[in-house]
Amino acid sequence: MSGTTRSRVLAALRETEGYLSGQELCERLQISRTAVWKAVQKLTEDGYRIEAVQNKGYRLLSLPETLSAEELESRLKTRWLGKKVYAYETVDSTNNRAKQLAMDGALNGSVVLAEIQTAGKGRRGRSWCSPPGSGIWMSLILKPEFMPECAPMLTLVMAHSVAMGIRETTGLEAFIKWPNDVVVNRKKVCGILTEMSAEVDYIHHIVIGCGINVNIAGFPDEIAQTATSLLNEAGRTFSRAAVAERVLEWFEKDYEIFIKDLDLTGLRDTYNDLLAGRDGMVRVLDPKGEYNGISRGIDARGELLVEQEGKTLRKVYAGEVSVRGIYGYS
């Protein structure tokens, strides 16, 4: 078990029905009774209700709605992803902070969280709305050994993981709007931004950021027609930590499938099942010339296949190209 002492104590209490004695905690986690007591005190200050009964031990009664490092680390059942979580109250963007941490030696699989982003980033330099306490503003740090040209496909891998994680935790039918958004009922609930530091034949690090609108009740007028939240679509709030947990667990699995072939062969079928607007008319907004066609899903490299008149298939590369559904955002 890794993570901070608090996250390890919280994980042990979470996994135990009934009381867990201080002695058993000491032996299981290889820490002192003082360390256990301090961890319990700090968790209590953070809003966890923990009952302490003499000769019985500790029992976790209830959890706060929080997305702290301790909460996420204590939930994850991953092997390498999220074993170190950096959580901040305020950052300019989690991607910026993750890039700095990566340069400073943060481990592969580290996760960066923030309650507030003052300059959240979207694709092509757009800003990202990230109000406090209501969404998941999260970035992953990867230090892979494959070539830089494989990195853009990770945006699609992350989109698959987010859609599956949302479906499992909320029951909502989340779909992927190629290449970097996740939508529910044709409105955006998540945006993904992948950034890389690399040389011609070597990757220093990759940072994948995602912003998931979980419990946001309202949006600015300029995006209200295209953006939504899990709260708005389901009519109830959700644990942000539970959603983040499932997204990360899906990503670890999806990433390991990806690196077997270094393409999307192993994820292509399920990705295409989740693709919004598949087999429907789309408009490709290419600076070289816009055109319409039928979306036929992605190929193994993550390019969108668009069928034009005469059954000709054109491969659409993400880059500066956008794709819109003819009858709405997705």
Layout of strands and helices, then pairs:
Blueprint (H helix, E strand, L loop, with lengths): L4 H10 L7 H8 L3 H13 L3 E5 L3 E6 L6 H7 L9 E7 L2 H10 L7 E7 L17 E8 L10 H18 L3 E4 L3 E4 L2 E13 L2 E12 L16 H5 L5 H22 L6 H7 L6 E5 L5 E8 L5 E4 L5 E4 L5 E4 L5
Parallel strand pairs: 3-4
Antiparallel strand pairs: 1-2, 4-5, 5-9, 6-7, 7-8, 8-9, 10-11, 10-14, 11-12, 12-13
Helix pairs in contact: 1-3, 1-4, 6-8
Describe the structure.
The structure is a single chain. By secondary structure, the protein is of the alpha+beta class. The chain has three domains: 5-62, Winged helix-like DNA-binding domain superfamily/Winged helix DNA-binding domain (Arc Repressor Mutant, subunit A, Orthogonal Bundle), CATH 1.10.10.10; 69-274, BirA Bifunctional Protein, domain 2, CATH 3.30.930.10; 281-325, Roll (SH3 type barrels). Helices cover 30% and strands 28% of the residues. The strands form three sheets. It has a seven-stranded mixed β-sheet, sandwiched between helices. A five-stranded antiparallel β-sheet has the order 13-12-11-10-14. Strand 6 (174-177) and strand 7 form a beta hairpin. Helix 6 runs antiparallel to helix 8. The longest helix has 22 residues, at 240-261. The chain is elongated and about 80 Å long. 42% of the residues are buried. It catalyses: biotin + L-lysyl-[protein] + ATP = N(6)-biotinyl-L-lysyl-[protein] + AMP + diphosphate + H(+). Keywords: ATP-binding, Biotin, DNA-binding, Ligase, Nucleotide-binding, Repressor, Transcription, Transcription regulation. InterPro entries: aa-tRNA-synth_II/BPL/LPL, ArsR-like_HTH, Bifunct_BirA, Biotin_CoA_COase_ligase, BPL_C, BPL_LPL_catalytic, HTH_11, Transcriptional_repressor_C. One of its GO terms (molecular function) is biotin--[biotin carboxyl-carrier protein] ligase activity. Its EC number is 6.3.4.15.
